[in-house]
Amino acid sequence: MGAEVVVEGLTKSFGRQTIWRDVTLTLPPGEVSVMLGPSGTGKSVFLKSMIGLLKPDRGKCVINGVDIVSCSERKLYDVRKLFGVLFQDGALFGSMNLFDNVAFPLREHTRKSETEIRQIVLEKMEMVGLTGAERKLPGEISGGMRKRAGLARALVLDPEIILCDEPDSGLDPVRTAYLSQLLIDLNAQIDATILIVTHNINLARTVPDNLGMLFRRELVMFGPREVLLTSDEPVVEQFLNGRRIGPIGMSEEKDTATMAAEQRLADAGHHDGSTEDVRGVVPQLQPTPGLPERQGVRRRKDRVMSILHTLPPAAQEGIIESLTPAEQQRYGVHPHMMATVPAGHRPSPTPRSNVGSERIQGDLADIPQSQWQPPQQGPGGGA
Ligand SMILES: Nc1ncnc2c1ncn2[C@@H]1O[C@H](COP(=O)(O)OP(=O)(O)OP(=O)(O)O)[C@@H](O)[C@H]1O
Ligand SMILES: [Mg+2]
């Protein structure tokens, strides 16, 4: 199973420029998470901080009991071996062919023989659809192929944690759909903890178990996918629908006068730039038939059901509706529960600034029967 990553109060600045502050989130083991955020909000800086390539000013990032912010160089070197990272620019060595690029971490970090290395490299290159391109130089292949070669290289050390910085950028929609499937299949096969940074709304809606968003130097939200997909927080809604109207502007922040002026134009019928207005929880991508079931999904169900009562009502509905009837029975929940909560007890639909558990607990309704607790595991297992 992939490692859990616990980030607590992480803050990073360059000189006097604070990139983000007090970022707190947990990447649950073996689950897939996506981090969204406008350009320049510090998503790449966040990934680099998680592997200790950049040093945060404050806070912790704990992996297998080691805080990579404060640990020794030696410990950091060991922890880094748990990671497979696909950098935003692919970061391939221009003078090495794809085979040698993908083989690089194995030659650097292991004592494997060239025969073993060859077997692993060819296997990973096949996984990302690059069979036959082993001898090509990075400069001789398309941008999408470079991304996939970067992904193959991220996979060779059998990572427990995979970080992907915009794996889809520069890819056409069909390749992006294949890549989304590849990430889910990969997770089913190796049960790694995966964090993907992307601007691709479709990928964000269909791939991850958890979604988060960075904006204005803060983690606006991070939680189960259903929370962001049903959120009425203006920043999240705007981003997930790719609209101009909303708090996000061309240069990240928009002032109220600009917002009002744009709203007037939109009200007068000027197109707001979005191609669709999708709300609600769309079905999540499943592993290709024939592959093992994703272990993370099973664990996530128990995890999410144990915090269900702390989540906003729309997210609760989305989660309950995604369960099979048998699962609904097991957890003691049923769809449209919110309709049964007396109106006076329903939380108001006001935008929230954070879904971090402590900030939302106060204004949520008590939902009958939804406070499911994990069963005591007997020798026969809990299911
Ligand atoms: N090494 C560095 N030194 C100084 N400033 C940096 C450094 N790396 C990043 N920054 C600054 O940090 C901010 C966040 O950059 P980052 O690359 O993390 O954004 P991003 O969210 O990944 O954007 P994009 O979506 O465009 O990739 C930017 O203002 C950038 O200029
Ligand atoms: Mg970036």
TrEMBL record:
Pfam families, alphabetized: ABC_tran (PF00005)
Coiled-coil region(s): none
Occurrences of domain ABC transporter (ranges): 5-241
Superkingdom of origin: Bacteria
Entry-linked PROSITE patterns: ABC_TRANSPORTER_1, ABC_TRANSPORTER_2
Basic and acidic residues: bias regions: 270-279
Region (Disordered): 270-299, 342-383
SUPFAM superfamilies: P-loop containing nucleoside triphosphate hydrolases (SSF52540)
Keyword line: ATP-binding, Nucleotide-binding, Transport
Gene Ontology MF term list: ATP binding; ATP hydrolysis activity
Protein name (record): Phospholipid/cholesterol/gamma-HCH transport system ATP-binding protein
Species, as recorded: Kibdelosporangium aridum
Native organism taxonomy: Bacteria, Bacillati, Actinomycetota, Actinomycetes, Pseudonocardiales
